[in-house]
Write a structure and sequence with these properties.
It is elongated and about 55 Å long. By secondary structure, the chain is mainly alpha-helical. The chain has four helices and no strands.
Length: 89
């Protein structure tokens, strides 16, 4: 298992939990189907519950890969890739 992916998934879970508490005001107001996940850490989730958080981590990793690719380009290549061929003329 990719350590960075799991760390990002844990971050996604923490963010989701914070959003649930913000939306509902108190933990006890959160619907039962989510309450245990909100109160627990990422590590305590079932594998099924981790799927959505890993999907969010995969989105973050895709952004990182894209920017790492852009960082390796020359200025002209960067402009071509981000602005398109027509705008660089």
């Amino acid at each position: 298992m990719n350590l960075l992916r799991e760390e990002l998934a844990a971050y996604a879970h923490e963010t989701w939990s914070d959003q649930m508490i913000f939306m509902y005001g108190k933990t006890e107001d959160i619907p039962d189907r989510w309450r245990l996940d909100v109160e627990g850490s990422y590590e305590t989730l079932s594998e099924e519950s981790k799927i959505d958080h890993r999907a969010e981590a995969d989105k973050m990793l895709q952004v990182f890969r894209h920017h790492r690719e852009l960082d390796s380009l020359s200025w002209e290549e960067y402009n071509r890739k981000t602005l398109g061929d027509e705008e660089t003329k």
